[in-house]
Amino acid sequence: MQRYTQQRNAILNALVAAARPMSPQEVLVAAREATPSLGIATVYRNLKLLVGDSLVHAVELPGEPPRYEVADLGHHHHFKCTACDRVFDVGECVADLKRLLPAGFTLERHDITLYGRCRDCGAGARPRPRR
Amino acid sequence: MQRYTQQRNAILNALVAAARPMSPQEVLVAAREATPSLGIATVYRNLKLLVGDSLVHAVELPGEPPRYEVADLGHHHHFKCTACDRVFDVGECVADLKRLLPAGFTLERHDITLYGRCRDCGAGARPRPRR
DNA sequence: TTGTATGCAAAGCGTTTGCAGTGAT
DNA sequence: ATCACTGCAAACGCTTTGCATACAA
């Protein structure tokens, strides 16, 4: 990271404010509040830069393009609401994944993604509009 | 599924023979052994059809396009070797995922992806070439 | 004979890159 | 004054779709 720019600052601020993983499009919309001329290419370039500097972390969910969140959140996993498509962080993690492995395999890391209804969309509630 | 075709049969056979999740490109290459004129569009169309008929299951790993495997394998998860990039099925699954959820959230399903070294690539072994 | 399925090529879609101009240092 | 950064538009890679032809029924 070499220079401070309005755009980069707006992108990082958007991620901090959202406090959940955002898609590049979501970042674009949010950061344009501060920098209306912002282009999508700049969002992608800065997300990559910020990930490279470990200020931002890429959240890869199965079957969809990566989202991004601030990096200082420690080990956690993600919950995707099947009604509104928003993604939330979930804390602590199950232990004992090693025992799933066949003999001779070694475990380096793992991803867990949970799917269901979030508080807003649960049970009889009228779901929020998707994402 | 309405008609039997050589192409569809070749695609399904390739998946059965591989016994692990394959990318559409891998399916194309394998199925062309039986049907050399096969086109990639037909692979995609048939994978979608076969998934619709629950004969094939889409395996979505974080950060990469879906792979496909035969559907009659029951509940399991996946292990991706960080050296050779092959994906393996792993059996039984951890319980107790519900306790990860914040209050008010309900759990419908989950994905677990493990990463590490497979038997062939483990420890001091010279890794296989990447997929 | 009928109409689903196929192969090709063009179109989509999200992401990346080339380039000339902008602006932080 | 530099040169990293930006915005635009073109390029990319993977997947989907339109269309005329082929072939299972």
User: What general form of chain A does the structure show?
Assistant: flat
Strand order of the largest sheet of chain A: 4-3-5
Domain module tally of chain A: 2
- Which structural class best describes the helix and strand composition of chain A? alpha+beta
User: Cα distance, first to last residue of chain A?
Assistant: 31 Å
Greatest interface and its participating residue counts: A-B, 39 and 39 residues
Task: Indicate the CATH topology of the largest domain in chain A.
Answer: Arc Repressor Mutant, subunit A
What is the overall number of helices of chain A? 3
Sheet with the most strands, sense and barrel status of chain A: 3 strands, mixed
Quick one: CATH superfamily of the largest domain in chain A?
Answer: Winged helix-like DNA-binding domain superfamily/Winged helix DNA-binding domain
What would your notes on this structure say?
The structure is a homodimer. Chain A has helices at about 5-20, 25-30, 40-50, and strands at about 55-60, 65-70, 75-80, 85-90, 105-115. In chain A, the strands form two sheets. A three-stranded mixed sheet of chain A has the order 4-3-5, with no helix packed on it. In chain A, about 25% of the residues lie in helices and about 20% in strands. The radius of gyration of chain A is 17 Å and the shape is flat. In chain A, helix 1 crosses helix 2 and helix 2 (about 25-30) packs across helix 3 (about 40-50). With about 130 residues, chain A is of the alpha+beta class. Chain A contains three helices and five strands. Chain A has two domains: about 5-70, Arc Repressor Mutant, subunit A (Orthogonal Bundle); about 75-130, Dna Ligase, domain 1, CATH 3.30.1490. The interface of A and B includes residues 90, 94, 111 and 122 of A. Strand 5 of chain A pairs antiparallel with strand 5 (about 105-115) of chain B.
